[in-house]
TrEMBL record:
Plasma membrane transporter mediating the uptake by cells of the water soluble vitamin B2/riboflavin that plays a key role in biochemical oxidation-reduction reactions of the carbohydrate, lipid, and amino acid metabolism. Residues 143-160 have a biased composition (Low complexity). It catalyses: riboflavin(in) = riboflavin(out). The chain crosses the membrane at residues 98-118, 212-233, 245-267, 274-295, 307-330, 342-364. Residues 1-19 form the signal peptide. It is a multi-pass membrane protein. It comes from Ciona savignyi. This is Riboflavin transporter.
Amino acid sequence: MIAGTEHSLALFCLWYALAFVDCTSSVTFLPFMNRFQSMFLTTYFIGEGLSGFMPSIFALAQGVGNSKCVNVSQFNDTANTTTYHIETHYSSPRFSEAVFFGLLCIMMALCGLSFFLLNHTKVANHFRTESKDINYKQGSIASSSQYPASSTPTPSPYDSVELMDSDSSGPNHNSEFQKQTSFKAIDQGELCDASDTALFKKTINPLLRADYIYFLFIIFVINGLSNGVLPSVSSYTSLPYGELAYHLAATLGNMANPVACLIAMFLPMISHVYIGILSVLACGFGSYLMILATGSPCPLLINQTSGAVLMVLAQCLFVGLVSYVKVSIAQIFRTRGTIHSLVWYGAVVQAGSMTGALLIFPFVNVSHLISFTSGDPCLTVCA
């Protein structure tokens, strides 16, 4: 009994244990991915997005939340009269909760198997960079012979190298060439082969303290919105527009996450200014969704198709922009930061999520300063 209401203590304890593992693994898994080539960091974010997309597909297949309005009659024996009223009837799910959680359990088992294979198979070891990549990342000069063909790291498109002949100090120094090129071109053998005596010197600008503060502040804010504030009010945002709009917002929003991460893999963003602009746009779409939630059960354009379209579009753009910014900043931290940068990244992600959840909780559950009303699909009438 909590605050006069019965709750499942066992469920709370299990939920807390699951959340604890989820939050701590987010902090430690990012530095772990630093052991692999940079493309694995982006695929990590893609998998993180799919982890939300797949359960939403299961929920759609289950058919949860489908309702219909039924005209119910009630006969009064005393007055010999019959009254009629509308009731909301929710359809039964196509399969039980046990099946739904069983599917989630299978997902978790596959994740555990993947993690095991990532650590204990030769195929995965082929893509490891380990300490060589860390030393290289810190700006040391390494010979190409240090990286055999089977273990050559493939840094991200952010990385660049300067190709210099090892005999550049000799008399033919002016005839030697220097080029800026990507690791990808070198790996493909477009500039030199394994017999060359060239040295690869990475030319990067390390992040300054101001850069860390700037990027970590962005991560703090957008994760506070995406993981803390907006999920708490998502039903107030989308459900007033109907069940179809609600399911589209949830499904397409979760789909936008891995799509944005995939785009970031091939079109990364390295400009500090553009990352800031995209973050402001994401906050703008998030603010629009928050305005819709405060107007529930009769938000803007409630009786128009355009209202539902704008809501779904805002949800997709918000999730997509946030995911794109998160991946871009993580890649910048990996290529231009220290070996502890991704640890700070993960910690700030969780700090922002916790702050957002703590800020919105009293408004949704306690305070009357902001009214969040769910309404009824059959009884709520908006002018």
